[in-house]
Every structure is written in structure tokens, then in C-alpha cells.
Amino acid sequence: MDAFNLYGLRAITPNFTSTLNTLLDRSPPTPLPPTIRLYGQIHSRYILTPPGLLQMSEKYLSGDFGFCPLLSCRSSSSERQRCLPTGLSDVCGTSSVKLYCPKCQNTFDTNLELPNIDGEEKRENGWGGVNDGEELGEIDGAHFGTSFVGSFFLGNPELVPEGKCVTVPPCMKVFGFKVHGSSVALQPSVREAYKRSTSKRLEADGDEGNRKKIKRN
To answer: From start to end residue, where is composition biased (Basic and acidic residues) (predicted)?
Structure first.
């Protein structure tokens, strides 16, 4: 396991070694609450790593974390605005997980019913396979933490809704430091440049791969 995911947890986790061994299937089960707490704290660190951010971006694009309940956040084609999970605190037991909308930059409870228009069926926000908003509300917000949203959009500037996040909401922090609205990674011009450079890099990687195949043949 990556040491970054465990940093600082030994000092705040009773019976850290035995609880960690339970998570890794190295020892008999320990009481459930400490195990859940440690797992959640490891999870909040993992989703800040490159592999974790990649997995979370795939889930975000699939709409697995739910959608903004505000009709004003819908696109011209009535497509719902996807949300991200966020915590209001990094301390376990403070509050449950919330949904953050990057378009209106509001935070919502997970059990809000989505408004229906154009004959759509009413539904609650749900996460891939977990459709009960009340069940989601039992998840500790610290399992996602306050740094995730800021790290997510700094690492994926192309996913910032157009024209948004030029001013950054108070909840957008990375490791306790507020992300300033002038951050170049959040500016529309930089996002466009990022998209172009990414496309060129992917094309170059594809050409290089083809050249290697030809060389081997």
C-alpha cells in the first residue's frame, strides 16, 4: 500500500496495526467502527493520487455520484449537471458526505429528490448501485475530505464547466489551503490549451506506437 495513503494515521488510529491488518486480510476481524474509520481515511488519501483521480473522473463522467437538483444547472439539451462527493470536514464524525455542483458551486445533501421535467420520472440522487439517498447520508464526509474537489479540477481542468470556477467557492481547498480564483489551471484559456496539448500528446503517442510496431515487424 502506498505510504502516502497511511501518512499520519498511526497517531490518530487506536490499534492501528491490527486494524490495518484486518483491512489487508492479514489477521482476524477487529471491531467494525475502527475498521470503517481507517478505511475511510485511507480512501480520502487514495482519491488524491493519480490512479484515484483517474477512477473518480471515470465515475464522475458516468454520473455515478449523482446530479445537481437545480434546473438552472441543466444544459440547453436538458442534460443534468454531474456532481462530485465532498466532505465539509477532514475530521471523522463531523458531517455526512455532500454533493458538490461545479456549475452553481453549491453543496447539497445526498437525499434531495431530483426535479422532473419533460415527463421524466422522479428520482433521488444515487451513486452507481446505491440509489438510497438516506443510505448515502450515512457515509462520513471525511471519507472524501475537503481537498478532493479542488484536487480533482486542478488535475482535470478540462472537466470544469465552461465559464465556471473562475471564482472558487470556499469549500475548494487542497490540503487545507484555499484554491485562489486566479489559479491558471481553472481559467478557460488554460483549459482549452490543456485540451489541445492533451490531444497532440495522444496523437504523438499513437504515432510513436505505430512506428515501434513497424520497426518490430
So the answer is: 195-211
Identify the CATH number of the domain in which residue 163 sits. Answer: 2.20.25.20
How large is the angle between the packed helices 50-61 and 148-155, nearest 10 degrees?
90
Round to whole Å and give the CA distance between 47 and 152. 9
C-beta atoms surrounding 48 within 10 Å: 20
C-alpha span between 100 and 67 (Å, rounded)? 9
Query: Are 56 and 13 found together in one domain?
Result: no
Domain presence at residue 209: no
Give the Å distances, CA to CA, from 68 to 65, 98, 124, 176.
Answer: 10, 11, 11, 25
Distance from C-alpha of 146 to C-alpha of 173, rounded to nearest angstrom: 6
pTM, entire model:
0.67
Name the grid cell of 54.
483517474
**pLDDT-based confidence at residue 47 (cuts at 50, 70, 90):** very high
Rounded Cα–Cα distance for residues 195 and 174 (Å):
23
pLDDT tens per residue across span 114-144: 655 554 554 555 554 444 444 666 789 999 9
CA distance 109 to 38: 24
